[in-house]
Amino acid sequence: MVNATEFLIQEAYRFAKEGKIYEAQKVLGMLHIYGLSDKVADMREEIGLAYLKDAYHPVHFGLVQHMNFRISTIYDYTHYDHAFIGLSPYATDSFGVRSPIYKKYGNSHEVLFKVGDMWVYGNFTQVNGEDDFYCGQVVSATTGRLRVIPFFETTEIKALARKAIDNLKNVGFYVWKFPEDFDMAPSEYEATQQEQTKLALAHYGLTPKE
Questions:
Q1: Domain extent listing, the chain
Q2: Could you write out the DSSP letters of every residue in 45-114?
């Protein structure tokens, strides 16, 4: 006989495979009632991947909704709240940033620098007590605001971001030099987005869909 927790887990997987990720995550949330909060955190990723494996539409790397497969938690001024970088068939391409400022003290350390002709935004931050780093290419800059497409592969960029902060020589506060106004067309960064999606899909063992 299937007990209540096993039934909820089975239902969550069933919804995920049917493409109903919101219903799947809501069912999974009910496991908190049975004192399984720790297990829910792991199950959310498993359920998210089950949904993506059976998703009818191609999966993209970018900004996603709360119930989708999340990789990083970020702050996006266009949402005035937390937003999420992750994988979804319905991921949007970019997030917004107001004029980046480095503050030595606090839980968010922003950085803005150039790699060749490319402007890069990075953020060393803490979310729920855990260290995180997210970054991306700046594709639009105007009136003190940036629009950024996220990167999945951040190892090299993270090292460059740390170096840019180290070059500040331990200052407590710094306003980063802002790029002149520009606005790239989607066709100019589409290849970069596709490459980042391929990297993310390969990392999680997902097969790209046409």
A1: 4-53, 60-203
A2: HHHHHHHHHT-SSPPEEEEE-TTSEEEEEEEETTTTEEEEEEEETT-BS-EEEES-EEESSSSEEEEEEE
